[in-house]
Amino acid sequence: MATTRENKGTRAFNDTIREYLEGMAENDALFAVKFANPTKSMDDCVNYIINQVQKSGCNGFTDDEIFGMAVHYWEENEIEVGKPLTNCKVVVNHAVELTEEEKEKARQDAMNRLRDEEMAKMRKPIQPKKTT
User: Is 64 helix (H, G, I), strand (E, B) or coil?
Assistant: First the structure.
C-alpha cells in the first residue's frame, strides 16, 4: 500500500489510518476480506476522507469520525473518492515518533544552527560606545 509523501503530518495521518485498519482487519475476518480488495488503496482512502472533511465545512473531527470514514471507504464497493487535494494540511492529534536517524539529524541541525549563530556574533564588529 502506497502512502502520500507531501509532509510529515500527512504521512502520520496515513500511517495512523493504515494502522487502525490493519488492526481492525486482524480482529474482524469480514472486514479483512474488504480490506484486501486490490481495487482500493490507502491513497484513495485518504483522498476520500480529506474530500469528505472538506465537503463538511468543519475543521475538527473525532478519531472515531475519521476512522468511520476510512472503514466506510473500504466497505463500499462503489464509492466516489474525489480528486486528490494537494494543497491541504492534515493535523494528527498524537505525537509523531522520530526514528533514531531523524533524531540524530535534528540534533546535528540544532548544533550546526547554534554554531552558526555564535560564529555570526563573533564576526559582528564591536560598535564603539558613544560618550557625551
Answer: helix
CA distances in angstroms from 67 to 42, 48, 50, 75, listed in the order given = 13, 12, 12, 12
pLDDT digits (tens, 9 = 90+) for 13-60: 888 899 999 999 999 999 999 999 999 999 899 889 989 988 888 878
What pLDDT sits at residue 96? 62
Cα dihedral 94/45/79/34 (nearest 10): -100
Residues 6+ apart with CB under 8 A from 69: 48, 49, 52
Separation of first and last alpha carbons in the chain: 74
